[in-house]
Amino acid sequence: MPWAVGGLRLGRAWVAAPDPASLRARWAALTGTEGSERDRLFRPTRTRTPTTGAAALPGRRSPSTARFADAPGPCPDPVRVLRDPFDEQWLLPDQRLIDTARPELWRVLDEHQLFTVETPDLLVTAHLPAGRLGRIRPLHRRPGGAEPNLAPGLLPLLGERYGGPVTPQDVLCWILAAGRPGPRGYEVPLTGDPGRWRAGLELGHRLLAVQLRGGPGAEPPRLPGGRRPYVRSAVPAWPDGLAYDPETETLGLGAGTVSPVPRGAWEYEVQGGTRVLEAWFAARTAHRDPEADGLEALGPAEWPQAWTSELLALVTTLALLADLAPERAAFTPGPLLPAAGLAAAGVLPPPRWARRPASVLDHREEGPGGQFALL
Fold it and tell me: Cα separations (Å) of 82 from 17, 181, 285, 368?
């Protein structure tokens, strides 16, 4: 996957939140002020201030491309993003508020797109990653899934070696099954054994379905009957903490309880040894921290029911990934395709153009102040 993009840098935490209502409230609070108070709430950086001009994000209706200080416009509809590992939140899609928005990613964001994020375990999401997660590699270089972000010549070569057509998603599934972090980055061995290829695809498709929670139009994977988490005691108006009882496999949210929550889900960690469930809960209670200030302190007064549903889905995802972890750790690719063969076929090294975004400017994009670029 030659084309890689650095992660989005938001520059100010208040432009993202676990619920869209908080973002609309923050927009209203910001646009209802002026002068030094607006500057304080905005949290200016060298890249973005209320007087900085910025273009509209591709594919999004910007409320305005005038300077924010002059004409903020109406609140843009929040969009779903991957804020942290396995944590789907919401973002205000206004480039005037985001330090580095990566317009090239917004241009290829559609229902066909998948993004891989380079972490030790490699994340895959259908949402735009918006945080300090790692380098982002889209599966497709153009909207509509028209061109895979793969080394040119790789798909036909693999199809010939393995005796059948190979799709871009097949390669992604193989990466999930066989790829491992290495000293040069995330390394993906290619097997020379068609049998190992098919075994890797079967495992990779299961991993992908779990990470995508089924994906568009598909039923999300579930734990076996009797192992599915349910709310046993109602979550209070605001839970005062998160706790886990390994003996009863019960997750406590204040006086509320969810069970069964497998130990593997509770102990699931990501980079830096952070437990996913604890980080997820902390993100939803951050606005209640006494040290929270400005727009970041605006959040729901009561625990939204939607968050409980998201928690049940997250527990299921983590439990299924924990169940698959031993099988993935034990998977080996067998005999490898020699690098010399890939080079002889023209697959390696990929050409320089494959490392850059494709030109997908098929319509005019509004620049700062309502101007349009001449191409």
Answer: 11, 21, 18, 27
User: Which tokens in the block code for residue 362?
Assistant: 């098929």
Cβ atoms within 10 Å, residue 202: 11
Segment 144-171 shows an average pLDDT of 96
DSSP state of 339: H
Residue 78 φ/ψ, nearest 5 degrees: -60, 145
- In the block, tokens 């193989």 appear at 174
Q: How far apart are CA 105 and CA 114, in angstroms?
A: 11
Distances (CA, A) of 29 to 32, 43, 77, 355: 5, 14, 16, 42
Cis upstream peptide for 349 (omega within 30°): yes
Beta strands 128-129 and 79-84 are: parallel
- Residue 219 CB partners (closer than 8 Å, separation 6+): none
Average predicted confidence (pLDDT) for the chain: 93
pLDDT attached to residue 136: 97
The two tokens of residue 306 are 């939607």
Global confidence as pTM: 0.94
2-11, 166-175, 218-227, 241-250, range with the lowest pLDDT:
218-227
pLDDT in tens, 19-71: 999 999 999 999 999 999 999 999 999 999 999 989 999 987 767 789 999 99
User: CA 154 to CA 157: how far, in whole Å?
Assistant: 5
DSSP code for 217? T
Query: What tens digit of pLDDT does each residue of 37-46 get?
Result: 999 999 999 9
Residue at 137: amino acid letter: R
Residue 309, C-beta contacts closer than 8 angstroms, at least 6 positions apart: none
Residue 239, CA distances (Å) to 121, 243, 251, 306 in order: 31, 11, 12, 14
